[in-house]
Amino acid sequence: MKNWLYNKVVIVTGASSGIGKEITKILISKYNCKVIGVARNENKLIEFKNSLLENNQKDFEYCLADVSIKEDWNKIYNFVKNKNCSLLINNAGTILPFQKADKVEDKDIERIFNTNFFSCVNGYKTFCNDFRKNKNSGIINIASVSAICALPGASYYSASKSALTSFSKIVSSEEHKNFFIGTYLPGTTKTNLFKNKDNVKPVLDEKTESILNKFSTSSEKMAKKIVKYIAKKKRYKIIGFDAKLLKFLNSLAPVKSSDLYLRIYKKSKLESFKDTL
Known about the structure:
Helix content: 40-55%
Radius of gyration: 18 Å
Strand content: 5-15%
Shape: globular
Largest sheet: 7 strands, parallel
CATH architecture: 3-Layer(aba) Sandwich
Number of helices: 9
CATH class: Alpha Beta
Oligomer: single chain
């Protein structure tokens, strides 16, 4: 019996790079899916499509949209409404440079919540009625281990991912008899997230990024794990060695663990963390 993922029409947000791009490749090549990639940068989407094997290019379409804008979800819906779409993967995300919570501007707080949290709420509300008509439908919300292990200097990122995790787990229960909803919390992954063009300055300096990459999971490996759990209909997963380690430390000392991270920042003397001290 074929896995429920085979031959699906899937929407993947943030499909132009990182985990979203790798998830798309796997869905097309391994599960014979047709994928509608959603992102803002058309050049990246075209470049990605052209990078696919020639016989796979027909299985990738794209919709230019900004998932952080509520009205753009109508655009996404209208683009896919006649394509028999039955799986939405909310992967798009953003992060801010590390700094104390009181130093973050309101517009940046709004942006990070609109992208990391409200985009997933709007995605759910846009497609839930259609998906209830098909028990073989699903929504996957990609959160972060920061949701359960808050990192100093990333207060609003952690808060947005925590909100997403709680929301996703709740609607997973509410829709359990209707369609599948999965909530996945990846650890540190080598993606372009830390080079987000929306930020005035890079999230990480080169030295910090180099150190972090030693402990990070590649986007290809992370995508493989995520798709594996989707295929098995796992409703909740923490993914990556560092993610599981951070969860363990947080379970031992929920408050003191954040204090420990601050001390590590201070001892490291890395440029990326100076605004958190």
